[in-house]
Each structure stands twice: as structure tokens, then as C-alpha cells.
Amino acid sequence: MIVNGTVNTSVAGSYTLTYISTDSSGNTAKVERKIIVIKSGWLKENGYWFYYDSKTGIKKTGWLQDGSKWYYLDGNGVMKTGWILSGGKWYFLEESGAMKTGWVKSGTKWYYLQSGGAMKTGWLKSGGKWYYLESSGAMKTGWLKSGGKWYYLEGSGVMKTGWLKSGGKWYYLENSGAMKTGWVKSGTKWYYLENSGAMKTGWIKSGSKWYYLYSSGAMAYNTTIDGYKLGADGAWIQ
Predict the structure, then answer these.
(1) CA separation (Å) from 234 to 90, 197, 230?
(2) Which residue, among 136, 108, 110, has the nearest Cα to 122 in the 3D structure?
(3) Which of 48, 69, 92, 126 has a CA 20 to 30 Å removed from the CA of 186?
(4) Is 14 helix (H, G, I), strand (E, B) or coil?
(5) What is the pLDDT of residues 203-232, one digit of tens each?
(6) Which domain CATH number covers 75?
């Protein structure tokens, strides 16, 4: 049998093959077959990546799962990178086009992408620590008011607990991270925090009683300050 024509499987198009067969009696038969080669899988064209359906040869658009990774192709079939808005949610696609999950630094700010790829906002617990992501998705640092309470996020974004020095003043943050006001016992000592959260020193009136707080903030007790006797509870004995 003789076959005339060739097929380049790496180039999409229509190819014609002619099959010629001659039997022992010298009779010849000729059959033509048209072969269609379609584009399939990932192809880079004019600097852009596209994905062609292996059955139809049509460019894919929208979300595409390839192996264990997700990609997004716009209305023209172009593979997207960077931030995209899809279904009202933000996603981040790496330079490879693969959808990112977990922490990502974009510009000078940090963001968090959930397991489904959607950008997280609000409170986030990651690696056993709490973070706060603003409505823009950017990780918050410094003071934050949330739900009527004040919190402090360190430079790493981690929510602070315990004692904090900020702007030259001391504050106390509960285990929940919320800023404490009023009396607080830390270790074996008592301290008093103003409505602003700042630790108080010197004489204070709490309720109907007077107390004295050392420069360290610790409450004085069972002693005499400025000629005033303080009891075991720290209150001035009148």
C-alpha cells in the first residue's frame, strides 16, 4: 500500500491522505481520507496562554482545573494572572496562572486566600495566631476597633495579648486581644487602666475610694504614701 500525503499533529488544520493499493492481478484501488488536527491543551500564542479543549479544539474560558490546580481564562480565552474578581469574590493567580491559597504579598501588603482561593476579610486564625484583614483584604497592623472593642496587631499582623507599650504608654490586652480598662490583676499585682486603656500612675479615685499606683503602675498597699495610710486592699484608710 502506498500512502500519499502527511499529517503534522503539532499544527492544527485539515490534511488529506491518499491510500493506493494494488492486488496481485494488477487491480488498483484508491481511497482519500481527510484528517482534522485540532488544538489541544495549553498553547502560547502571541505571548498569551490559552487552553484548548481536547475534544472540540475550542478555547476554554472561565475557571479551569488542570491537574490539582485552578486557572482562570478570560472571555477571550487568555490565561489571567494577578488579582481577578469572580462571582463577587477576589482571587489571586500566580505568574504561572495557578490560583493561590494561603498568604500572599501583593505590592507592600499581605493578603490571605482561603482554601477555595477567595480573599479573606475580617478576623483570621492562621497557625494558631489571630490576624485581622481589612475590607480591602490587606492585613492590619497597629490599633484596630472591632465590635466596639480595641485590639492591637503587631508589625507581623499577629494580635497582641498581655502588656503593650504604645506611644509611650502601657496598655493591657486580654487573652481575647481586647484592650482592658479599669482594674486588672497581672501576676500578683493590681493595676488600673483609664478609659483610654492607658495604665494609670499616682493617686486615683475609684468608686468612692482613693488608691495610689507606683510609677510601675502597681497598686500600693499596707503602706503610707504622702502621709496617707493604705490598707491591705490598697484603699486609703480615712
Answers:
(1) 55, 21, 5
(2) 136
(3) 126
(4) strand
(5) 999 999 999 999 999 999 999 999 999 999
(6) 2.10.270.10
Given this model, what pLDDT does residue 89 score?
98
CB neighbour burial string for 207-224, b if at least 16 within 10 angstroms, e if fewer: eeebbbbeeebbbeeeee
pLDDT at 28: 86
Q: What is the pLDDT of residue 36?
A: 64
Pair 17, 87 in one domain = no
Do the beta carbons of residue 78 and residue 49 sit within 8 Å? yes
Are residue 60 and residue 125 in the same domain, yes or no? yes
Distances (CA, A) of 177 to 78, 80, 121, 173: 45, 39, 18, 5
Residue 30 and residue 106 share a domain = no
* Residue 26: pLDDT over 90: no
The rounded distance, in Å, linking the Cα atoms of 100 and 127 is 18
